[in-house]
Design goal:
This protein has about 120 residues and is an all-alpha fold. The protein has one domain. The protein is built from 5 helices and no strands. The radius of gyration is 15 Å and the shape is globular.
Length: about 120
């Protein structure tokens, strides 16, 4: 069962990343972000930080097949969840941010805690 949850989490991570990588304009819209002054740097940042980074994390989790690798992916989700929580508390981010936080926190909890007992 642990293996199925881990694989599903890595597949979802890759899918989230592919959306950011292949559809940065859509990602900008969903996240209420915008490029300014005709610069393409915002699109590049979305492709990198919200796209390819998560594709790489998910692939690493699948290919390395180590509980520690999965916990590292979980730590990345924990960092994202912490930043999202700060945005909710400090910036008053709305319900969409709460849902993103819930997903990030759930992935973090599973990947970190669910893989602790699997370590040698």
């Amino acid at each position: 069962m642990r293996r199925i949850f881990n694989m599903a989490a890595m597949a979802a991570t890759i899918l989230f990343g592919l959306v950011g990588f292949l559809a940065p304009g859509y990602t900008l819209q969903v996240l209420s972000l915008a490029t300014v002054d005709g610069s393409t740097m915002g699109m590049s940042e979305i492709r990198a930080a919200n796209g390819a980074l998560f594709v790489g994390l998910g692939l690493a989790g699948l290919l390395v097949k180590s509980p520690v690798a999965l916990q590292v992916v979980g730590a990345a989700y924990a960092g994202a969840a912490a930043g999202r929580l700060a945005g909710i508390v400090i910036d008053g981010a709305g319900m969409q941010a709460v849902w993103f936080f819930a997903v990030e926190a759930a992935f973090a909890a599973w990947l970190i805690l669910g893989n602790r007992s699997a370590q040698p």
